[in-house]
Amino acid sequence: MRVGSICSTSSFGAREALKGVIYTKPLKNGATQEGIISEALSELESVEFDKNDIAYMNAMGINPPFKNGKEAVDCLKANNIPIQYGKFSDKNVHACLAKGDKGKTTVLINHRYKNSTGKPEILATAEAIIHESGHAKDNDTQNSIQEELDNLSLNVLTHRAFEKKYPHVFDKSNSFFFREGVKLYPKLFYQFGAGKTALKERVADKYGHMQAGDERHPSSKLACDIKALDILS
Ligand SMILES: [Zn+2]
């Protein structure tokens, strides 16, 4: 594969790939892709997070980088960050924030989804975009378990807002995009019972090799617990 850019951060990628580097080849958007992206952005722009959901995240030691979807869209616009599809060296990555040859930052969505024009897929794309916008807001080279938790909370907050706006919209969606991302994290974040064990194990599996916190994302107890799981494994 010809390498066009390298992912600096990625969503839900395989652990092995995240330890190394994910190579990407951005593709040119056609009319279908422009359509999906513009509808996803317009959905995102109208997303309001539930105040109780934000309080729930804060109580877990998580700080969502945006107060609503519009802040994320504005961040992409202000930084002139385009959204394209791309081929990834790790097929299990849904999306990533890639740096091109000339240092140009781009949100890349896995090309597997480039013709997915259904409403659930468009909303899923919006969720992937807001996660990467969180990384883009930072614009630094540091990543950490805490940064991923903060950005994963954006996926979950946005997902819950979409479920409220479009009841049952995701009911029949069970492809990889949903099973291993869009529908998984809301379940894990809101799992009842002590300790959030499944969430910790999942995040440790995907991101446990990272440092617990970084300069802009000081580690919470949750991030430290996840890091400890990785050391033990
Ligand atoms: Zn991420």
Short description:
The protein is an alpha+beta fold and 233 residues long. The chain contains 10 helices and 5 strands, in the order E-H-E-H-H-H-E-E-E-H-H-H-H-H-H. Helices cover 50% and strands 12% of the residues.
Folded structure, characterized:
With 233 residues, this protein is an alpha+beta fold. The chain has one domain (5-232). Helix content is 50%, strand content 12%. The chain is built from ten helices and five strands; from the N terminus they run βαβαααβββαααααα. It has helices at 15-19, 31-45, 51-59, 69-78, 119-138, 145-165, 176-182, 184-189, 197-207, 221-232, and strands spanning 5-10, 23-27, 83-88, 95-100, 105-110. Strands 1-2-3-5-4 form a five-stranded mixed β-barrel. β4 (95-100) and β5 (105-110) form a beta hairpin. The longest helix is centred in the middle third of the chain and has 21 residues, at 145-165. The chain starts with a strand and ends with a helix. The model is unreliable at 12-18 (pLDDT under 50). Bound molecules: zinc ion. The site of zinc ion (ZN) has 6 residues, from α5 and α6.
